[in-house]
Write a structure and sequence with these properties.
This protein has 4 helices and 7 strands. It is an alpha+beta fold and 151 residues long. Strands 4-3-2-1-7-6-5 form a 7-stranded antiparallel sheet.
Length: 151
């Protein structure tokens, strides 16, 4: 990202969905990384969530649901506990963002290129600006789903 892009605020977009393809590294062991095709997805229908699909070249990718707020904070400093921890890379990992993910069946340590993640998150703000997420929630449908009734 250029300095000029930092100065220009994100502009609203008519699009309600965003997909961004990238290659990330799965850290298998110190010094052993496996590059993996992945995508980041964002939708106004789920304004607090970023979906990360790993192995997008397979019929059934591995999908993680991540907090957009946590990813944004993790660009600047370590955040998160439990199932998701995000931190900027230091030393040999400088220029990367590290995601430690813990699932029901799988755990993973992923290294994403920081400029790519920053660009993607900036574009999500064109779909739903930070702080405006609740404007995109259909709370009646959510309550109906929770109560197992049709909206």
């Amino acid at each position: 990202m250029t300095e000029d892009e930092d100065l220009v605020p994100p502009q609203r977009s008519a699009s309600t969905k965003l997909t961004f393809y990238l290659v990330l590294d799965v850290v298998v062991a110190p010094g052993l990384d496996v590059p993996v095709a992945a995508s980041l997805r964002y939708s106004a229908a789920e304004p607090f969530v970023v979906h990360l699909d790993n192995h997008v070249d397979l019929p059934d990718p591995v999908t993680w649901a991540l907090s957009r707020d946590l990813l944004l904070a993790g660009l600047e400093h370590p955040v998160g506990l439990g199932d998701l921890a995000v931190r900027p890379g230091r030393g040999p990992d400088a220029g990367s963002i590290l995601l430690a993910l813990r699932g029901e069946e799988e755990d993973a340590l992923l290294r994403l290129p920081e400029p790519a993640l920053r660009r993607f998150l900036r574009r999500t703000e064109c779909v739903v600006p930070v702080g405006c997420e609740t404007e995109h929630l259909d709370l009646n449908a959510l309550v109906a789903r929770l109560l197992d009734r049709d909206p």
